[in-house]
Amino acid sequence: MKTQYKSNQKVQTSAIALLNLFFFFSASDKAVAQNNAGILGIDHVGINVPDLNQAIPFFSDVLGFTPVTQLGPIPLDANWKEANHINPNTGAVTIKMINAGTGASIEVFSYADNKGSKAHPNSDDIGASHIAFYTSDINESVKYLKSKGVKILGEPFLTPSGDTAGESWVYFETPWGSKMELVSYPDGKGYEKSNPKTVLWSPKNSSVKKTSDKDFDVKRNTEIIENHLKIWNEKDETKRTSLLNQFYASDVEMVDRHFIARGQKEISKFIVELQQKNPDFRFSAKSLETNHNIVRLYWQFGSKAKPAVVSGMDLFVIENGKVQKLYVFVDGKK
């Protein structure tokens, strides 16, 4: 019996060792593949248009993008056309690269005397694609595009549940018939509420956001934090919403040790819950320090009789004149 136990134990140990080796080499292979590919992200999206003189004004005058570089017209030899599945009778190509704001650039191709298909692929055709542009206010963007004569394909749809809950989207057509999209989720998407390990990139959360000169103004930043306290003490929803719009970014993020609130609505909801649990309590400042566009506020929360039932420190990141990030540190109850 003892011999059998040792034998079974040896088999189990060997199996675990083999399993560990499998995971080790699988992870190593993946790491090697990533390192060898050296891919960091999407540089640009390429699309074909029938006429640059029609497409470029649409991208620049209507969507507000900036054409930057141009190549061509470039004659294409027979070997290139064959390798890239281009009709042998199609002419030279001209390429325009467009800066599309925060995100990938758009590379626009136009072929002279194009002998390729003039029909757009249907939405369910293999190879059909579209570009989606993020907007902080989809209804205003739709209103604007309509004023420019752009065809909107339906009305914005708000996803009610699931991973993309909170996302609004709608398709529109370019003057040459390509389908593109507007998308908006100022308060985040449903899947983000579970604090996943990996979060989808979004232009609204881009790290390339830049501060303005006023973000380093001590007087202005002090005013913002004073109004932050007013926001957290305000019980009138209309007044609180107005203050939030003035002093918090639409995609503001509040990071607490127990949760993360994204967007003004989530933060406002938390404030209401806090006020309902503590109807006689108010926030007040103990001290405030500024360093460029970073502000540190030491606060207390309590009643008139006991104003410091809870104390803590908030760290603010100010961008473009509004609170972009808020990190909350709570000392605890006294």
TrEMBL record:
Keywords tagged on the record: Metal-binding, Signal
Domain of life: Bacteria
Family annotation (Gene3D superfamilies): 2,3-Dihydroxybiphenyl 1,2-Dioxygenase, domain 1, 3.10.450.50
Sequence ranges assigned to domain VOC in this UniProt record: 41-185
Extent of the signal sequence: 1-33
GO molecular function, one term: methylmalonyl-CoA epimerase activity
Gene Ontology biological-process entries: L-methylmalonyl-CoA metabolic process
Coiled coil: none
Name assigned to this protein: Glyoxalase
Provenance organism: Flavobacterium crocinum
